[in-house]
Structures
1.
Amino acid sequence: MQNPLKSTFTRRTFSLVAGAMAGAFMLSSSALAFTPESSDPIKVAQHDWAGSEFSTALLVRLLKEAGYNAEPVTIDASSVYTALENGDVTFQPESWTTSHPELPPLLKAAKMTNVGEIGLLGMDRYWYPDYVKEQCPGLPDYKALKDCAKLFATPETGGKGRLLAFPEDWGGFDEQRLASLGLNFEVVHAGSEAALLAEVKSAVQRKVPILAWLYEPHWAPFVFKGEYVELPPYSDECFANKSYACEKPKGPILKLAWNGAKEKWPHAYKIFEAVKLDNKEYAEALIDISLNGKSVPQAVDTWMQKNKDRWTAWLQ
């Protein structure tokens, strides 16, 4: 008697393989008439957050559809600028200007090429779950945290409150910001985006007070019910005097390139220049990856199936 599980597996495997072959033929047909200017690998920066994994995988996929030898390169968000300057990284799809004040001087000095905005508007803020507001009257005004610091304390911070921040290489100046604002908090950096979000999720499920950096575009501020702390509004002076006693600025997310990319791979550069995403579709991809169990390649497949007219125009 035939094993029904084996039979189901065989049918499913055949279906998946057939679908993948058909999809590959359909997607690759647009690239058949084009010969890449160089077979050298185009290296695309990939950082340690799900959004970067998605945007990098999407760009790599698009470049491969056009016939290029493209590959992701895992690198932290600070080291990537040196790598772009040296040509060790060709393209960076996501440079969050809100987190890296060192970027404008590098662009002004022409250390790398600004290829334009990818279409996403970045924002980083202090966030707390909605149930915390009852325990810390006065929120969302940041001054309320002066009287409620111990509410957020953990064994590792002693009598100080804890600010759970994103990985240290993302930047932020939070130690200086908290000191300048007179907040008795200690910054604890999560080891990764996944670790940060897992801790926020655990705290929300247990209704434990937590103060964390969250950011948009991202699914977390929409899935977890809460509010942003209201810090003094951003000003250039606040950052120039290095007190950082204000919000981080909202800002566009840029696409960056090694200075030699346009000359070596002009058509690939044109494709990269054309790529645009908006906050909504970006967040939908992250929900698929982080909440719906899709792999990054599956999320890219979904996006490409929905947006075939867009990306085929980019490849022309």
Note: The chain has two domains: 33-121+251-315, 123-240.
2.
Amino acid sequence: MRGWANYYSTGISKETFSELTMKMYLKLKSWAQRRHPDKTGQWIAKKHWQTIGGDNWVFATKQAGKSPLRLLKHDETPIIRYVKVKGNASPYDGNLVYWSSRMGKNPEVPKNVATLLKQQKGKCAHCGLYFTEE
């Protein structure tokens, strides 16, 4: 589920993720009722669902002394928008700062510098100004 949600996180998929979370809940509820046919809904809910960090109805395991293992909800996956390349930008135009901050790698820039440029989005963490090639 995590891989599928991460793969589609670059598109406009918030509504789809919310719908899938609801469908997953209904499937799990149906499974739990089939698994425990003689138990009440309240007993089933206490056994399989928990409140974790203010989030109710989390399907998770109960482990003594450990944090519970929980099932990922699709709508918890952050949506990452794709940023278009500037109109006339090219990897061969020599703008190392732009391409390093965009991709996090550039053959002409050291790996640690390119990674920092990407993390900081091309800006200085102290003064907030954009880096130049100098």
Note: The chain has five helices and two strands.
